[in-house]
Write a structure and sequence with these properties.
Blueprint lengths: L4 E6 L8 E6 L5 E2 L3 E2 L2 E12 L4 E7 L13
Antiparallel strand pairs: 1-6, 2-5, 3-4, 5-6
Length: 74
């Protein structure tokens, strides 16, 4: 995951250039007395690579971007 996109493995083949909605729990802006919110954005499929039983999909955010890089989500 980076500020402008992410990649993931899935069993579903997504079409190149498809538009998807991305929701990342707890990675949105913090609200006073409530803590972090969920991060919502729109992304475009920019890479689909077939692996043995899955597809590695690369998304580029076309809406909001993350404020900083995160190597993994815990």
């Amino acid at each position: 995951m980076s500020r402008r996109g992410l990649s993931f493995l899935t069993k579903r083949e997504l079409p190149l250039f498809a538009t998807v909605t991305v929701v990342i729990p707890g990675r949105g802006p913090a609200r006073p007395a409530e803590g972090p919110t969920d991060f919502f954005t729109i992304a475009s499929v920019v890479r689909v690579q077939k692996e043995i039983e899955t597809y590695r999909v690369g998304l580029r955010f076309v809406g909001a971007t993350l404020p900083m890089y995160s190597a993994e989500i815990s």
